[in-house]
Design goal:
It is built from no helices and 18 strands. The chain has about 180 residues and is mainly beta. The model has no long low-confidence stretch (mean pLDDT about 90). This is IGSF1 protein.
Length: about 180
């Protein structure tokens, strides 16, 4: 079968104008190139280095927003494609949220873990991010908890959250400080 490519943002979340992020593409591939596509068009090519390629975006503007994907190619032959990653560039108008985790940063496998993203805004909703994942956790109204039941090693990693309001205009917060979850 064809290799699977994963694509994710480091750090995850909506980027502020002037901000920076890195698009990471990785796969269990041999030699070849990663070609970064934006809105269906090739943008940049990088040689594969230890089954990973990183494309940096710095001093982001609205021109950097769009739908990105990675293609793994050998010559002009496309061997695999990643999912599509939507990048948004937005001004931050809300205060930075605070992320907390209960019962703590280190938990035993099988335990339930509660993530709480708190923001000083009554009508904000929040996303929880796990670095290295394309999929965010489901959106939640602020002051509600994300509960991970029966955690396992696959839940380990660096978490953060980001909040927004949907009034007449969509307004975003900065991304919270990160929290590392360790599963023993």
């Amino acid at each position: 079968g064809a290799p699977t490519i994963s694509i994710f943002l480091k750090p995850p979340g909506v980027i502020p104008p002037g901000g920076s992020t890195t698009i990471c593409c990785s796969c269990q591939c041999d030699n070849g190139n990663f070609v970064l596509y934006k809105n269906g068009h090739p943008v940049r090519t990088l040689e594969l280095r230890v089954s990973r390629a990183e494309f940096s975006i710095s001093n982001a503007t609205q021109k950097d927003a769009g739908a990105y994907s990675c293609h793994y190619q050998n010559g002009s032959t496309v061997l695999a494609r990643s999912e599509t990653l939507e990048i948004q560039v937005q001004e931050f108008h809300l205060p930075e949220p605070a992320l907390s985790v209960l019962p703590g940063h280190e938990v035993d496998a099988g335990a339930d873990v509660v993530f709480r993203c708190t923001i000083a805004h009554p009508k904000a909703g929040c996303f929880l991010y796990l670095e290295g994942q394309v999929e965010d956790f489901p959106f939640l109204p602020s002051e509600q908890d994300y509960i991970l039941s029966r955690v396992h090693k696959g839940n380990e990693g660096r978490y953060s959250c980001q909040c927004f309001t949907k009034n007449a205009l969509l307004k975003w917060s900065a991304v919270s400080q990160t929290l590392d979850l360790v599963v023993r």
